[in-house]
Amino acid sequence: MNLIIEKNVTGNKVTLYLKGRLDAVSSKVLEDELSGIDSKDEVILDMEELEYISSAGLRILFSTSKRLSKGGGTLIALHPSEAVTEVFDVTGFTELIMIRDSLPQPEEPDHHLYPLRAIQRWMLDTHFNSAASTMMNACGLLHIDPSLDLEKVRDAINEMLKFHDIFRVRFVFDPDTGDIVQRFDGEIREIEIEDMTMEEFEECKKTLRKPYKLIDEQLYRLRLIRNPEGQYFFIDFYHAIMDGVGIVRVMFREIEKRIKNPGASFNSSYAALIREELNKDKAEAEKGTEYFRNILNGFDPLKHLPPADETGEISEHEFEIPIEGIDSGFFKGKHFSEQAFFMGAVILAMAKTTGQHEVIMSWIHSGRTTASQMRIMGIMLCQLPIRITLSDEEDVASLLSRVENSIKEGLDNREGIGSIYEEELQDECACFIFQKGMIGRRGEASFAGLPARAEPLPSDDEGSAAESTMDIELNAFNNGTFSLVIDYDPFRYKMSTMKAFAESVISFIGRMQENDKITVF
Known about the structure:
Blueprint: E1 4-10, E2 13-22, H1 27-35, E3 42-53, H2 55-71, E4 74-78, H3 82-91, E5 98-100, E6 110-115, H4 118-130, E7 140-144, H5 150-163, E8 170-173, E9 180-184, E10 193-195, H6 198-208, E11 220-227, E12 230-237, H7 244-260, H8 270-278, H9 282-296, H10 301-304, E13 318-323, H11 338-354, E14 358-365, E15 382-389, E16 393-395, H12 396-412, H13 417-422, E17 431-438, E18 443-447, E19 450-455, E20 470-477, E21 482-488, H14 495-514, E22 517-519
Parallel strand pairs: 2-3, 3-4, 4-5, 10-11, 14-17, 17-20
Antiparallel strand pairs: 1-2, 6-9, 7-12, 7-19, 8-9, 11-12, 13-21, 14-15, 16-22, 18-19, 20-21
């Protein structure tokens, strides 16, 4: 039988029903059909009645998949026949394109009780112990482009909510043990567009930053607001279920796909990740735990943190400084990563500030390493300790090599980090965070492919939201520039002390670009 193709188009979703044989001759017919489809579309090839596929057919699927992915579209081979599935398996094609037995459906409520992941419990306990507020995540008010159709944005957000089970997460008390656990059966409440006067908008902004009620409550806030001056998207989520800039990027990407392709089925399951972790090899975790215990052995806040100030009152707890004199072009062709370079500068500054040759601190890894994980909005980060001993005169190349090796060792042992959180061994460590591809903490941002502006919100309790003793955040912006953010405990440090530390970091960044050896002490 020759190849028969039936076509159905719904919005940006193109479905081709294939029947017969896809061989060297008939593959040209499919190639012509696919070449006329926009690269931003979602293309579904229904292969239930496809009897045969040749290498020529595979080549066309592969090239089309690459073309669509570059343009933001997708190619899905839907419920292939037994004969076609066998060819996919034998050739390894299952690793090259998206093959599904059925199209994703919205996540059904999952009524099981799951333990908190170690990082979640650590965050939760840190919030209880260190903050007057449970609102630990920086919420954002995004002034979005006036040309965006707000109704389409609303529909895209509501569709996204259905297909990601992280939005169903609720914390509850386990009725048998009394432990705080999580479930994935919370109600999804669709958002609506809220039209406000300017006076109503100003009053609304005052109420947006409120502590979350943690037990059996919704743990995110999304709102679309329209007023005489523009359109706004408000985003906030509790830190122990979703985390920061990485999640915002995933969220924006999912919303943009659905604006361009209404009805597209992009989903992910955070509950599945938790189930997978519960079944992992315990021996691997024990090995990693021992590794991190050795890293943190002897940690002393009096030695490994900048000397504390006697402040006696809450002041500002965060500031951001642009880093002049370096851009992303500096790293082209280098043997070291941006993260290792900036972490090296922070390590040098910490040693200089403390007067200690040994630096013990932590660094953040997002935990996302595969394509499927990139779509999971649930928290996946790891806070991995690192330990570096410096000499009086440091060779920059050697330092960066040691930092890179420590990063690799930390990732190799990350299965054991859970016990370190549970034992509270790194609670007071300073933490380094490298955030690449920033959308902007303040100022310019991007939403749905169009310019947007992130606006600060009034807050009475932001000073209580410093998560740890000291967070050192290096932001890499899409335009190739960098900035340094220091978020610190205002009960321990004055801003002047932290600004002096920041100036030391920036000084070492400059010296590392120019010198082979650096005198630290």
